[in-house]
Known about the structure:
alpha+beta, Deoxyribonuclease I, Chain A, 7 helices, 24% helix
Amino acid sequence: MKLYSWNVNGIRAVVNKGEFAKFIAEQQPDILCLQETKAMQGQAEIDLPEYTEYWNSASKAGYSGTAIFSKTPAIRTISNIPADIASKFQLCDTYGDTNTEGRILAAEFNDYWVVSVYTPNSKGKLERLGLRTEQWDKAFLAYMKELEKEKPVIFCGDLNVAHKEIDLARPDDNHKSHGFTDEERAGFDAIVDAGFVDTFRLFNTDGDNYTWWTAWANARARNVGWRIDYVVVSESIADRLVGASIHPNQMGSDHCPVSIEIS
């Protein structure tokens, strides 16, 4: 099974550029998880009859959003963090309620849960760092562990953090930058400590492997980037992994797709 994840930064834009159709034709994912769709289902011209589409769009038009496209229909889907977990961690701040922003979509299949996630950005001046690290990260991990009680979990998407110094081109310049603060990195440590596996690092321990590049200063052509998009799996199914990859040559978004193959 080939699973891909891609923050498309606007599904309508990437479709209109022709890059989405190119990606599907070249990669033929069995399951595709999308983030930052910025659209409701039906607002983009997508003709993929071999896939069943599941969408979780933000209540605010043109913002955030996740989706899962699958060749095998899901048993069921769940949008957002369940109310009992959300209320415990209070997922609101002055910017709004993250649980209405279409940030999580979970789909149950025979052997595992697949979750597409778009983690809130802490913002340039770290205005949302507290919500991100003290509320969202803890609520999300609690939810993944709750799903894992039923069957193994594969969660993927834009986690908006570079975990280690190897995961960004210029770590020395960014220790106080959103996406690389100690607090955000500790949130990823907690994921690993809870028994989840960063699939890419099982197969590749090299630097210069990134999934997002700023639009400034020709960063993508120079490969001055960050690895902030991941596929993470329950430790119990890590031995079924055949490979994990990053696809930097796929254009259309400021992020590139990431993928795993699992037996």
